[in-house]
């Protein structure tokens, strides 16, 4: 079976108030062409279909057109789950009717346990679940984290799983050890959102969404597809596309890059050289400029946009360098050192020995729960 694994479409997304619908439409058209070229038999969408709980009319129409081409015109099964950006209850409206057309949409815990079986492969669809939802569903007050939520759900799936068939899980979550970028909305604060890879032991393929880098995790069975487009300048160097998954005697997942309508690029240089375009930069791409010798220029953004109409962000190089130095300084410290510095900044007093012991114990408990 040949499968297209995509996620994090974020239809309706903007960057610095600049709408990306035309760019998203272009990429979705590329995916349709790939479906035909690769003779895809099934499409998986692992969450964050929309960028907002209440998507715009134009965003909904774009997704409907994409699904119509896949599911109605080509009669392909589509498996999808809601992500943390999606409004699950609104997205799930009509899902029982959709199933009659082989568009299987999971937006609630109760959707997780009955697999969709296609070509003797069981697909389990796990939407993004808040710990509070799992606590209520299972009537279990001990559930406090995403790890505990997904452990409970997968435990029930394993109890009824058919060991004679291959099994695939589709979900939207932060796998422990994954690489983040700036455009992923945090699931929660601290380490409670992490889900260990061990939770999904025993599944032949785990198709994930949430992290936008297609190589955010290194695993033989767990894969992110990455986002449809570069949605922040921290993603400027990331490839974008889809995963081509082949399931027969074994399982193989290959990342297939696609070229966007406009690229997203970060360029550092001198203001005078940029305003004269000495580097012969293509003006149609989206840019973040980090420029030197710009403090004396009045309204530099307006002047630069006359040359580069798709300039979306402008930074002073001196400020950017200071930000990087602060980040490196923080990254090189241990957790306890960062907490001690924070306490000193807030109270002007160092932590007591007893406070240090309590924090060290709590950090150890968090690390133990995370893995």
Describe the fold and architecture:
With 371 residues, the protein is α/β, with parallel strands linked by helices. It has three domains: 2-257, 4-Layer Sandwich (Purple Acid Phosphatase, chain A, domain 2); 264-322, no CATH class; 333-370. The chain is 33% helix and 23% strand. The chain is built from eleven helices and 18 strands. The chain has helices at 21-38, 57-73, 88-91, 95-99, 131-138, 146-160, 271-275, 300-305, 317-331, 335-347, 353-370; strands at residues 2-6, 14-15, 18-19, 42-46, 78-81, 103-106, 116-118, 121-126, 166-172, 174-175, 194-195, 205-209, 222-224, 241-247, 251-257, 264-270, 286-292, 311-316. Strands 6-5-4-1-14-15 form a six-stranded mixed β-sheet. A hairpin with a 2-residue loop joins strand 7 and strand 8 (121-126). Helix 1 packs parallel to helix 2 and helix 5 (131-138) packs across helix 6. It is globular, with a radius of gyration of 23 Å. Residues 325-331 have low confidence and may be disordered. InterPro entries: Calcineurin-like_PHP, DNA_Repair-Maintenance_Comp, Metallo-depent_PP-like, Mre11_N, SbcD, SbcD_C. Heterodimer of SbcC and SbcD. Belongs to the SbcD family.
The CATH class designation of the largest domain is: Alpha Beta
Radius of gyration: 23 Å
Strands in their spatial order, largest beta sheet: 6-5-4-1-14-15
pLDDT below 50 for ≥5 consecutive residues: which ranges? 325-331
> Structural class of the helices, strands and pairings?
alpha/beta
SSE ordering: EEEHEHEHHEEEHHEEEEEEEEHEHEHHH
Mean of residue pLDDT values: 88
**CATH fold name of the largest domain:** Purple Acid Phosphatase, chain A, domain 2
Categorize the overall geometry.
Answer: globular
InterPro entries: Calcineurin-like_PHP (IPR004843), DNA_Repair-Maintenance_Comp (IPR050535), Metallo-depent_PP-like (IPR029052), Mre11_N (IPR041796), SbcD (IPR004593), SbcD_C (IPR026843)
Protein name: Nuclease SbcCD subunit D
Subunit structure: Heterodimer of SbcC and SbcD.
Domain Calcineurin-like phosphoesterase: 1-214
């Amino acid at each position: 079976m040949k499968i297209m694994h995509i996620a994090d479409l974020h239809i309706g997304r903007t960057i610095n108030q600049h709408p990306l619908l035309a760019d998203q439409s272009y990429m979705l058209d590329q995916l349709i062409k790939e479906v035909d070229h690769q003779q895809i038999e099934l499409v998986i969408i692992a969450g964050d279909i929309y960028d907002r709980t209440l998507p715009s009319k134009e965003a909904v129409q774009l997704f409907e057109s994409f699904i119509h081409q896949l599911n109605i015109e080509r009669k392909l099964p589509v498996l999808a789950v809601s992500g943390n950006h999606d409004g699950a209850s609104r997205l799930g409206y009509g899902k029982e009717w959709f199933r009659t057309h082989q568009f299987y949409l999971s937006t609630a815990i109760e959707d997780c346990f009955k697999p969709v079986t296609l070509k003797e492969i069981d697909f389990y669809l796990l939407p993004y679940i808040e710990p509070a939802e799992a606590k209520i569903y299972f009537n279990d007050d001990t559930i406090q984290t995403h790890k505990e939520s997904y452990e409970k759900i997968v435990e029930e799936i394993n109890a009824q799983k058919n060991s004679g068939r291959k099994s695939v899980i589709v979900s939207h979550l932060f796998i422990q050890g994954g690489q983040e970028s700036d455009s992923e909305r945090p699931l929660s604060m601290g380490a409670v959102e992490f889900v260990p890879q061990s939770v999904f032991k025993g599944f032949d393929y785990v198709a994930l969404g949430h992290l936008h880098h297609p190589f955010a995790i290194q695993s033989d069975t767990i894969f992110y597809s990455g986002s449809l487009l570069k949605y922040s300048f921290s993603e400027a160097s990331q490839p974008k596309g889809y995963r081509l998954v082949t399931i027969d005697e074994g399982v193989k997942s290959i990342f297939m890059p696609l070229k966007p309508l406009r690229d997203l690029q970060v360029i550092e240089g001198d203001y005078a050289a940029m305003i004269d375009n000495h580097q012969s930069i293509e003006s149609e791409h989206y840019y973040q400029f980090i420029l030197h010798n710009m403090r004396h220029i009045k309204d530099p953004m307006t002047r630069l946009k006359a040359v580069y109409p798709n300039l979306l962000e402008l930074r002073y190089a001196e400020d950017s360098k200071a930000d990087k130095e602060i980040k490196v300084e923080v990254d090189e410290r241990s957790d306890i050192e960062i907490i001690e510095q924070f306490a000193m900044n807030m109270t002007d007093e160092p932590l007591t020995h007893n406070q240090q012991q309590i924090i060290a114990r709590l950090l150890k408990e968090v690390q133990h729960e995370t893995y």
